[in-house]
Amino acid sequence: MSAAPTTSSSEARVTTAAQAGLVACPHCHLVCRDTAARDGYGDGRVRCPRCAGRLHPRKVDSLSRTWALLIAAAILYIPANAFPVMQTSTLLSTQNDTILSGILYFWNTGSPELAVLIFTVSILVPLLKLATLSTLAVSIQRGARSRADQRARLYRIVEFVGRWSMLDVFVVALMVGLVHFQGLAVIQAGPGAAAFGAVVVLTMLAAHSFDPRMIWDRAHRPRRGRDPKKRLVFGTRHG
Amino acid sequence: MTDSLVACPECDALHERRELAPGTKARCVRCGAVLYRRSYLEPDHQLALVTAAILIYLIANSFPIVDLEIQGRSNSTTLVGSVLALWREGREIVAVLVFATTQLFPLVDLGVLFALLLMIRRDRPALAFAPMLRFLQALRPWGMIEVFMLGIVVALVKLSNMAEVVPGIALWAFGLLTVLLAVILSLDLRSLWRAGERVVVRPRRRLRPKQSVHP
């Protein structure tokens, strides 16, 4: 069941809130009259009449925040995979496990389905998140117009699966809590665990700060540089 | 300002709001994102569920999750025990992360939701309603009980290779909590803004820019 579009059901004729001079409150989702043309959005001065939250037609500084968080996550991704996340000390030996060697352990001890699960959420998902969000951000910066629906779906998937990457951190935490038999076997968390947790949090924040409405804004904006009148107009200096 | 319109949260397309049948959702005609949902449960039912979840949460956190036996020695841990062990060995970041996502945020989430549903039930204006609901919306993605539940399963499989694993009370409690939370989290927080229409205290006057501050 779907709500009725305000215009026709054909995609091209959808009216957005922005086009109608309206803005949806990012907090309580009330559709309000956009008074920014008169007052400006600066400093969050325009407030929602229902919840008093700050009104922004789009998430603030969406692309720069997304990029900053993505770059931080990409940098931390290296120590997260290079350093051990878990250290197992037994009477005879000490074994350091990275995320990948933990997966191999499951693969070799007869739980290939768990190996696949952990590989997916710990390695595949963070990588795909970084790649997908970067691609989406680049596509918006380049003013891509095609396949907006597919890009929107990609974003939705990324936002949905992100949290499951925390799985490995929780597994390590439980193992540390359970296995401390002094002199027999002790499991400790390695430096990779914090880095990995940070990667998950940063990519989740990056997905949150990305505004998917930008995908559609660009897709339905008139092409740049096609209007011959506009083409040769050079900017005049302000002030 | 109008309540009869809905803007798609993912593509900004405008839609007219229609009342939904229980258990159905409205999707955006352009991008397919969920605009709003109507739960099978009325706020009163949800209040009952949240109360149950809080009780089970307390059980899940007070009892050991599993008991581990190696060569006649046994060891058990609660969730707090795991977090403390991480903290003691100098992994403070991981400890804080695990504590926040599996204990603090889920509990605060349930507590705030409980308070909000109570306010809706009383149906009288409450100043705290709007800020609390906004806070809950921001907090929601960071509670990860269901991921933690999967983590328990993985850890148990891993440990069953090297030791005798005896499930504890908290294991069952976490399982039950995961199910309850799945139902509770499927409640669309956006619907609370409408359910609490008479509870929200609207700002008395328009917040205008102060000309002296922003010349």
Automatic annotation (TrEMBL), chain A:
Transmembrane helix listed as a keyword: yes
Matching InterPro entries = PqiA-like, PqiA-PqiB_transport
Localization: Cell inner membrane
**In terms of domain of life, where is this protein from?**
Bacteria
Transmembrane ranges? 67-86, 114-140, 161-181, 193-216
Per UniProt, which keywords does this protein have? Cell inner membrane, Cell membrane, Membrane, Transmembrane, Transmembrane helix
This protein's GO cellular component annotations are:
plasma membrane
| Name the UniProt record assigns to this protein | Paraquat-inducible protein A
Which species is this UniProt entry from? Nitrospirillum amazonense
Automatic annotation (TrEMBL), chain B:
Which keywords has UniProt assigned to this entry? Answer: Membrane, Transmembrane, Transmembrane helix
* Cross-referenced InterPro entries: PqiA-like (IPR007498)
UniProt keyword annotation of Ubl conjugation present: no
TM region positions: 47-66, 93-118, 139-157, 169-189
Signal peptide (residue range): none
Whether Glycoprotein counts among this entry's keywords is no
Family annotation (Pfam families):
PqiA (PF04403)
Protein name per UniProt: Paraquat-inducible protein A
This protein's species is Nitrospirillum amazonense
Taxonomic lineage from the root:
Bacteria, Pseudomonadati, Pseudomonadota, Alphaproteobacteria, Rhodospirillales
